[in-house]
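Journal club prep, notes for RB
We'll compare a predicted complex against what the paper describes. Inputs for the inosinic acid case:
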Amino acid sequence: MERPNINDDIAYIIASEQQIKEKVEEIGKLLTERYRGKNPIFVCVMKGSIHFFSDLVRQFDDYCEIDFLASSAYGNGTVNNGIVKINKDLDMSITDRHVIIVEDIMDSGVTLNYLTGVLNSRKPASLCIVTLLDKPERRRCAINPDYCGFVIDDKFVVGYGLDFAQVYRNLPYVGVIKDEVVARVQNSK
Ligand code: IMP
Ligand code: MG
């Protein structure tokens, strides 16, 4: 039997490599204008935003610093169970600093609602949210991104950092995973 190809698990692409590249450049320019001379701290919310983060900071054309935070909200499913945990906190102090949180996707908003609460309690000079993808239909918290790459429908997406059961983060584009693949993985647990 032929081995399956990872790309065959994707039903369709919603943001191609080229579309992502253009969008990242656009947001990078806006952030450069807004934060020029402010030496902001870009916060990468691991693991999902690694590619977006890495591409975005390279489009920021001024001095800045970076730090990493790891949180988890989902188990191996596709529905937020409402529990957010910080698995790795920032190394730096953000008090009196301009902070830019870089997230892969906003879904229910539970994660960012929790994270912005924690970070705001440390009294940053300012805090803004940048997300590559936004699914506003599914919002359960009163929170919205300051900058968003693509507003998408209520579909589970993978690629460019986003995973399903930890797989597909390496795809260079964002696509909707086939229902049959989700069912196959869930049935094998
Ligand atoms: P929220 O707390 O419901 O807004 O979900 C935020 C986190 O859930 C994101 O940072 C992602 O890690 C994950 N997530 C939400 N929707 C998707 C999706 O469609 N694909 C992969 N991960 C997702
Ligand atoms: Mg995430």
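Talking point for the session: The chain has a mean pLDDT of 93.
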